[in-house]
Amino acid sequence: MRPMKGIRFKKYFSKIGLYDILVFCLVLAFLFFLSFYFREKPTWVKVGIKLSSSNWWSRGTIPPYWLADSIEVGDQEIGAFNKVSAQVEDIQVLETTEEIKDVYLKLKIKANFNKNKQQYSFKGQTISVGSPMELHLGDSFVQGLITFVQQEEGIAEDLIISGKILNVFPWVLEPIEIGDKMKDGQGRVIAEVLEKQVTLADYLSTDWQGNVYIKKRPDRRDAFFKIKVRVSKRGSTYYFRQEQKVKVGEELYIQFENGELDYLSIIAIEK
Fold first, then answer.
1. Residue 261 CB coordination number (10 Å)
2. Furthest C-alpha separation in the chain
3. Do 215 and 202 contact (CB within 8 A), yes or no?
4. CA distance linking residue 222 with residue 196, whole number of Å
5. Residues of the chain with pLDDT > 90: what percent?
6. What is the pTM of this model?
7. Cα(144)–Cα(135) distance, rounded to whole angstroms?
């Protein structure tokens, strides 16, 4: 039986001509082209993330100070074959309280691009704004939500806001002086006090006849500030600290070196 099989194979291959071989090679080349065209190609992609966890709605998921302080510009994640898969290009750390901080990272990551789907993916997950991302940066494990992909939203510029804070205790305002600054974790100034005016707080009082009077409270203060703030513009709206909306009537939280202003109501904006 074995000699018969050999004869059959010889007869089969003897029927294959140059034309058949050429067609076969063209089909292989076409299949190779398709696989090359549609396969995911690795490329460097710029993304931004805000550190948090998958439970982004909970304030308790904001990173503690010791995690924020452990990350530096240049920190890397090492992937397969001991190659860099992600690197921190910029970091903005903003004070909130003594225990927690807001942390925004700008990274470049080695992502795959699928031409067919027109999507980037990183470690098997699609990269899109709002999607979660986990990274091992040096000795730190971090997780957060993607804030931009490739093109950062927002053009940084300075605005001068006038704001008021009413009916507060004197000790809240006393530490804050003209020239005080708020800086991010890289030492960049994002807010500076230009003017400060403090008066006794007003309150309404009525007499036995129902007449209304405006009186002063010796134990409370009203304050008016003029502050230069570093903002980013997305669409037609300005934002301070990435997320606080800067519009007349909105309230800002600003933490200076020696004190903080909470619920500072914006009454005017200058460019």
1. 23
2. 126
3. yes
4. 11
5. 34
6. 0.71
7. 9
Phi, psi of 16 (to 5 degrees): -80, 120
Dihedral sign of CA atoms 53, 59, 64, 68 in order: positive
| Phi–psi pair at 17, nearest 5 degrees | -105, 180
Q: Which residue from 103, 20, 31 is spatially nearest to 67, judged by alpha carbons? A: 103
Taking the CA atoms of residue 128, residue 190, residue 159 and residue 163 in that order, the dihedral angle to the nearest 10 degrees is 110
Q: DSSP secondary-structure letter at 130? A: T
SS3 223: strand
How far apart, in Å, are the Cα atoms of 197 and each of 87, 116, 171, 172?
45, 61, 15, 14
63: which DSSP letter?
P
| Highest-pLDDT range among 9-13, 55-59, 98-102 | 98-102
> Could you tell me if 229 and 193 are in contact, meaning their C-beta atoms sit under 8 angstroms apart?
no
- Which two structure tokens, joined as six digits, stand for 211? 């007449």
Partnered with residue 245 across adjacent β-strands are: 239
Hey, which residues does 228 pair with through a beta bridge? 160, 192
In degrees and rounded to multiples of 5, residue 60 shows phi and psi of -65, -10
Residue 104 contacts residue 96 (beta carbons within 8 Å): no
Torsion region of 82: left, alpha or beta (phi above 0 gives left; psi -120 to 50 gives alpha):
left
> 3-state class of 16 per DSSP?
coil
In the block, tokens 């966890």 appear at 53
Amino acid 35 reads S
Whole-angstrom distance, CA of residue 144 vs CA of residue 154: 20
Which range is most confident: 30-44, 179-193, 206-220? 179-193
- How confident is the model over 146-170, as pLDDT tens digits? 988 887 666 789 999 999 999 999 9
